[in-house]
Design a protein that fits this description.
With about 200 residues, this protein is α+β, with helices and mostly antiparallel strands. It contains eight helices and four strands, in the order αααααααββββα. The chain starts with 13 loop residues before the first helix and ends with a helix.
Length: about 200
């Protein structure tokens, strides 16, 4: 259970904020990702201090961000097809099976649902200046001044992000894709069935 209410102290992380003009990236508010671990943690400290989930979302592992976006897109298409094409008797059950990703319109909204205030606080309790870094396959294991351990991953643009539910989201992305394919097939069947019924 998280008990601390403070998120990030300017005094504790002043090295990040004083250096901010040197960062060309999210640490200073534009759209590019920090290209080094320290810069990514600095940007995360700023976002967490502000309780800015949308900004922090841009600082998690690229693999997770892309998976969340793909899940939202797949569920949105599935929802649209079900609402338009499924028989009324099957519609509610099919919509319910889509889960929370079908109830949002953007990846940021889904992230806010799944990483609420307690989740943001837990990250805040971990983030700090890096004191040690060790390569672990495709990831970097980082020890912070708080004595906490984080894993980070460099995306396709070289920008670092904090690892968050990467494998689980990858699995969910694959599942959403498979289920969308099935819903498309079902939709084609329902359309043919209606066409036949109209001819009779």
């Amino acid at each position: 259970m998280v008990s601390r209410v403070n998120v990030v102290s300017h005094n504790e992380y002043s090295v990040f904020f004083l250096a901010c003009p040197l960062f060309i990236g999210l640490a200073c508010g534009d759209g590019s990702a920090p290209k080094d671990v320290r810069g990514a943690l600095a940007a995360s400290a700023v976002a967490l201090e502000a309780h800015d989930s949308d900004r922090f979302f841009r600082l998690i592992d690229e693999r997770s961000r892309f998976a969340v976006a793909a899940i939202v897109t797949a569920r949105a298409e599935a929802k649209k097809l079900i609402e338009a094409e499924y028989p009324p008797a099957e519609r509610d059950r099919a919509l319910s099976a889509l889960g929370d990703a079908a109830q949002v319109s953007t990846p940021q909204e889904l992230f806010r649902r799944r990483c609420g205030p307690d989740c943001i606080q837990q990250f805040a309790d971990l983030v700090g200046a890096p004191v040690a870094q060790t390569a672990r396959g495709a990831e970097v294991e980082v020890t912070t001044v708080r004595g906490a351990t984080l894993h980070m991953h460099a995306g396709s643009d070289g920008g670092y992000g904090i690892v968050w539910n990467t494998q689980a989201l990858s699995d969910e992305r694959a599942q959403a894709s498979r289920e969308l394919a099935l819903i498309r097939e079902n939709t084609a069947v329902y359309r043919k069935r209606r066409a036949l019924e109209q001819r009779q």
